[in-house]
Amino acid sequence: MQAEVLREMESTIDRLCPVPAFNALLKQFARDKAAETSRWGETTRLVHAMLGGASPQIGRLAALTELLVLALDIADDLQDADNAEKSWMQAPPELSLNAVMGLLMGAVAELGRLQAEHPGEPMPNPGEVGQIVLNAVNGQYRDLTNDIETEQDYIAVVQQKSCMLLKLAYYMGYGALPPDEAIAERLDELAGYLGVVSQLSNDLRDVLRYDVKNDLLHKKRTLPVLFLLGGDADEFPVIRRYYDGEIDRNEFLSHKQACVDYIRESGCIEYTEVIKTLFLDKAAETLDALPADAERKERFRELVIGPRTPDE
């Protein structure tokens, strides 16, 4: 995270939270988030700049993007009961939940403040921001209830949950520009593709790890897991038996190495990589077709997709 974004986040917290202990807790969470490779605020800035924007308020909007994503990250970790090393997981859960509510409502209040302070400037609509966050919350509900049976279900849940964070970061940038429906649709489409790419990368990592974040342990139905469940049950029945409740977690863990070996040999990694590449190619095509400043668009491309390969 850029240092200036963190400074603006802390200034925003100072405006929103007069209770000293609560103020300090939120700043601790913000600094914890800043220690990650969090680029949500930078994404907001780059979207705004590549579309020709030069709003003096873009720094405050970038900070609000980070605060909103921080709130959703805290909620996600509380619900999944993982990432134990994070400061919000080490704080009393009732205080972390209070932080989620404070960050969400505070960000909406701050957007309203910006609109009131600068009535002649285009600003992101707090109602639209709330709708994007609500869409992510609906996607999180489907994820928590494991409401996934098919690959189509999986893509739908990812686009409703993970893609919304990208949509939020983009909207906070282009929402500070005069409305352009075609640009908005193109960026929403880009968010849909890149959100799936990001989630598939996470799923590939999580299916091969054997700690509390392993998707198999939690019986999640990610794309690589759906591939495994759709294969020949006789070839390696342990995964299917665990998902069907025929064996418990301890027995499943006793097959740890055999399970990892099967996953590596099953083809699920290669299959997921192919699907990921398809979505990445669609994202690149969508971004290339976006009318924007060429130099700044290339910087944005490097951030969200990566540098071009020699044959591109």
Average pLDDT, to the nearest integer? Answer: 91
Beta-strand proportion:
under 5%
What is the CATH domain class of the domain at 180-312?
A: Mainly Alpha
Low-pLDDT ranges: none
- CATH fold descriptor of the domain at 180-312: Farnesyl Diphosphate Synthase
What portion of residues is helical? over 70%
Query: Largest sheet, if any?
Result: none
- Categorize the overall geometry: globular
Distance between the termini: 29 Å
SSE topology string: HHHHHHHHHHHHHHHH
What's the architecture of the domain at 180-312 in CATH terms?
Orthogonal Bundle
| Tally of helical segments | 16
Indicate the radius of gyration in whole angstroms.
21 Å
Strands, total number: 0
The CATH superfamily of the domain at 180-312 bears the name Farnesyl Diphosphate Synthase
Structural class of the secondary structure composition? Answer: mainly alpha
Keywords: Transferase
InterPro entries: ComQ, Isoprenoid_synthase_dom_sf, Polyprenyl_synt
Protein name: Polyprenyl synthetase
Family: Belongs to the FPP/GGPP synthase family.
Report on this model:
This protein is mostly helical and 312 residues long. It has a domain at 180-312: Farnesyl Diphosphate Synthase, CATH 1.10.600. Helix content is 71%, strand content 0%. It has helices spanning 3-16, 20-34, 40-50, 58-80, 87-90, 93-117, 126-144, 151-160, 162-174, 181-207, 223-229, 238-243, 249-253, 256-266, 268-288, 294-304. Helix 1 (3-16) runs antiparallel to helix 2 (20-34). 37% of the residues are buried. The model has no long low-confidence stretch (mean pLDDT 91). GO terms for molecular function: prenyltransferase activity. Pfam families: polyprenyl_synt (PF00348). This is Polyprenyl synthetase. InterPro entries: ComQ, Isoprenoid_synthase_dom_sf, Polyprenyl_synt. It comes from Paenibacillus flagellatus.
